[in-house]
Amino acid sequence: MPRPLRPARRMLLRACGLLLAVLVLAPAMAAPQSADGGGDTRRTVLVMGDSLSAGYGLSADQGWVALLELRMARDFPGCRVVNASISGETSAGGSARVVGEVLHHRPAVVVIALGANDALRGLPLPELHRNLARMIGASQHVGAEVLLVGMRMPPNLGPDYTRGFERTFRQLADFFDVPLLPFLLEPVAAERAKFQEDNLHPTAAAQPAIAAHVWTALAPLLDTACPRGAG
User: Where in the numbering of this chain does the SGNH hydrolase-type esterase domain appear (predicted)?
Assistant: First the structure.
């Protein structure tokens, strides 16, 4: 069932944001292509994240994105995962890469899981908002569904920044009308044993719980973008 229309002012602001995405993308528009040159007809789920999604300190098959791909192959064989996450990535880096990534892969779904490195660097929240908004707008412009994945930061950053950081993700999800998974590490955040020695990156043992957590928010999008049994 379609969601109720937003107030006129909000719709106007959203239209302006999408128009900006059109102006950015239009000069580079090309025919859709698969990453392998045209042989793979499965629809793409594109993940754009940082080291938490790139599987820092883990083997290639241990990260939550790899585990998600295994489940997707079983339940949604018409879709595949492209993990475009980079260790150390920021929202500015994702914003700079997003146009090329969505034009190349033409994803059905884009999972945006960035922001942690921005907070650790004390990035002003309006910049975080602008970077993530550009990523969402560019993804929607090529017809992709978007799952926005948030983070929560430790209180030592100050209560105003911590609350504002979380609020930024909620505002973006509301403005662009996309689902929000508020905290990527929710299932393991309170378990010190589930983190590597740096106390920042989850261990291999933590990855199945993270994958299951993301799946709860992703599966409804896959039902629309990649029906079960397709492929």
Answer: 47-206
Residue 25 covered by a domain: no
Point out the residues that are catalytic: 51, 198, 201
145-165: pLDDT as tens digits: 999 999 998 888 899 999 999
Residue 30 lies in a domain: no
pLDDT in tens, 108-120: 999 999 999 999 9
> Shortest CA distance to 109 belongs to which of 71, 75, 83?
83
The pTM for the full model equals 0.85
pLDDT at 102 over 60: yes
Can you give the CATH number for the domain in which 214 is found?
A: 3.40.50.1110
Q: How many domains does the chain have?
A: 1
